Amino acid sequence: MKDGAQPTRERILQAAGKLFHRDGIRAISVDAIAEKAGVTKRTLYYHFRSKDDLIAAHLQARDEPNLTLFKRWFDEAEGDIAAKVAGIFRHLAQSARDAKWKGCGFLRTSVELINLPGHPALVAARAHKKRIEDWLSSLFAEAGAGDDALPLARRIMLLLDGSFAVVLLHRDPSYMETAADAAAQLIADSLSGARGNGSDLPGAASVG
């Protein structure tokens, strides 16, 4: 890698991210990204083979920061696991009150590329959502959800991504608050059911 290559690459990614967030991925040209980043198109193509690769790299760059933010919100929330997961939704509701909020970038990109299922950006988006699902599933498993850990994580993901769409449509963050309450109830009910069946809990004695 040439000296200074990483800062240049990051500058291109930051410029692309701002433009994609403002206008969407299809409306933004490579020329506009290069101009925003202060580089030539040749330099941009040195770091990214195509606009498609740049879009995918943009999402990949958001993967870890987004998951880390969710984990921080979870850790900072008070209460049991149901309240902590609900806390993620409540933080998102607060974010949605910002006039510049545009929902989930991974979902927005997926909608724009709906007719291109093999697009590298969709691969990145699916991987990101799966990481969140796996993280939630591990939390629920540790809390004693047993075989319901993964199904419960998927139900929470449906609430999460569904609320992204509905809040964006209505411009009403209270839908995210409602989703927070629904998530907390789902988790509480699931864990309560697992506790009623001692064989699903960690360390439960086997019978027979």
UniProtKB/TrEMBL annotation:
SUPFAM superfamilies: Homeodomain-like, Tetracyclin repressor-like, C-terminal domain
Known DNA-binding region: 29-48
Domain HTH tetR-type, chain residue ranges per copy: 6-66
GO molecular function: DNA-binding transcription factor activity; transcription cis-regulatory region binding
Keywords, ordered alphabetically: DNA-binding, Transcription, Transcription regulation
A Pfam family hit: TetR_N
Alphabetized InterPro entries for the sequence: DNA-bd_HTH_TetR-type_CS, Homeodomain-like_sf, HTH-type_TetR-like_transc_reg, HTH_TetR, Tet_transcr_reg_TetR-rel_C_sf
KW Metal-binding (keyword) present: no
Designated name of the protein: Transcriptional regulator, TetR family
Organism per entry: Rhizobium freirei PRF 81
